[in-house]
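tool=predict chain=A
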Amino acid sequence: MVILAGIDEAGYGPILGPLVVSCSAFSIPENMVAADLWAVLKKSVAKTRKHLGGRVLIADSKKAYSTSIGIKHLQRTTLAIMKALGFEPQSFNQVLSYLCPDCFSRLADYPWHQNTENMRIDYDRADIRIASEVLIDDMTENKIKPVTLRSICLDTGYYNNLVSRTKNKANVLFSTAAILMQKLWDDLPGSDLQIIIDRQGGRSHYRKNLQRLFPEHQLSIIIENDNCSTYELKDDSRSMRVHFVTKADDRFLAVSLASMVSKYVREILIADINRYFLSFEPSLKPTAGYWQDGQRFIADIQTLIPNVKYDQNQLIRCR
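tool=predict ok
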């Protein structure tokens, strides 16, 4: 058996809201490392919304979410996987405590994130239970087991601090992904790891970054080309292969799942921002936080509710 993990983010480009990086990991037979897990788990998982038929949707978050559909697929998938892992949250506060507990103390400092503890999750518990049971049965039949689902939420103030120190948001993203890699290595002793990450910023060379972050590991370059960069890190007892792959969020189930979880967490926290400022002026048009519309939202706040004071470092991300 080997641990196959996917890492992906949501919110790299926006001016408002957090950057969220997530990891999903499964224990699978070694001969399935290169398999199409959508085909293997076709009884319980679908890649498209069409003909879903009760199965869990796992897809690139850009295909699972739209403003018209909302978060329903993101939420259903995240909660079904969490249920398969033995956890059934009742509130978004519990979702955060499970996925990214480290962000709790920081979020408490934001006026718009004060009520996450009271935000009940509206979902069909019977549907989640059935979807999770079907998923578990399908995985068990194929000797697959979910082992972890984790996120790192870089709230705006924390993100700004990291970018100001590194002077490079790409380095912040890479370092955050590396934290998740290190956690997999530490939490799953004795297991060989295969980690797939969506290629970041178009770069194709990652050796120096990996060597700096994992200085005690022996590092080998397996391949570096326009589509994939693969590295192997070893110690005396086991190995970790890290694959940086173009469009990985659409090609590998574990990466797609990480993409959806990241988007789910981000959308809930963006909704907090909208809810807070609209409580002062209901005519204010909500925002998704992306660059152009985020600037519009900031200008609207300044025009429509000029007396509402806020810390710009907590709301507006540096570039």
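The chain has a mean pLDDT of 91. The beta strands are 2-10, 19-28, 45-46, 56-57, 145-154, 193-198, 218-224, 228-234, 239-245.
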